[in-house]
Design brief:
350 residues; Beta-lactamase; 2 domains; two-stranded antiparallel sheet; 11 helices; 15% strand; hydrolase; D-alanyl-D-alanine carboxypeptidase; cell wall biogenesis/degradation; Beta-lactam/transpept-like
Amino acid sequence: MGKFIIKTLYCFVLALLVSGYLLQNVSAQTPNVSRISSQPETPLHSVNVAPALTARAAIAIDADTGRILYAKNPHQSLPMASTTKIMTVLTLFAIPGTSLNDYTVVTKDDLVGEANMGLVEGQRIRVLFLLYGALMDSANDAATAIAHYAGSKLPGSGDSMAKFVQEMNRQATLMGMEDSNFANPHGLDNPSHYSSAQDLAIAGWYAMKNPTIANVVKLSETTVEGNYFFNISNFIRRYPGANGVKPGETDEAGLCLVASASRFGHNAIVVELNNPNLRTESDLLMDYAFNQILDYEKPGVNRQLLLGYIGLPDAGKLRPYRALVTDFQRNFSEAARYLLALQGLFAKVA
């Protein structure tokens, strides 16, 4: 009888190990944010208490699983300034028939003031350069020219800008952005133009999943075919492992940021809206996010205390089993010790 019990326990633990391995293989097929490692890894500041941010709204997520790590008014609809341009570029890629190799002619309507890349009416310019200008220089004229170009590819009659903005909102809905309404492609203040921290985290996640966008927003500066572009994001130059995505500022929106970073084999996205202390508190929130991600891996952590998961396109695949696989992997060493103990006990009984 004793041998039977030991064999049963042994087989049970072995079955758990095998099932974990199989699930791990399945989860490996799930698309994931590209991981960027830096050598050597900069030490992480210890931030174990949720920071009291001065931002009107903020969120931090584990970009590999969608797990919410921090939230302050995450669904509050607020002006979001030039973080809008993330959605502008995502919409460009979503419209059939567009190409970064196309050329478009700059119109007078494209010459929107404030931040710009110096476009001139009648100028013939490659769409690729508009992409760099919108994402790095935060150029309003580039974002507007993108909208006119891509909007002209949409079916139906009417103004290309109106069609593009309508498509921005349609794409936002498809992405699960429930608190947003877009009125323009550049982000200048408009009562009908707003988003939320959670919605912008979703947009930022999609942006970092797009290889072209991700390869642009990680640059501090670059020259493309003789054209110089400078990333206005100080976060890119300042924070260890920073690789995106877009800051913004207007009178109504205040200082805003959608930020992405990769550290210790993990990816995190933070969003802060209307934060007068954005420079220090964006770093603080990102540090807190990585502390939460790494602490989650430690044995004995109560993983029932979750803030939830942000909506991701893989949500139907991620939620049922990825948490199980992750937890199993994190506790694998403990399970292995039990298995070895059972093996030893079984050998003695046998």
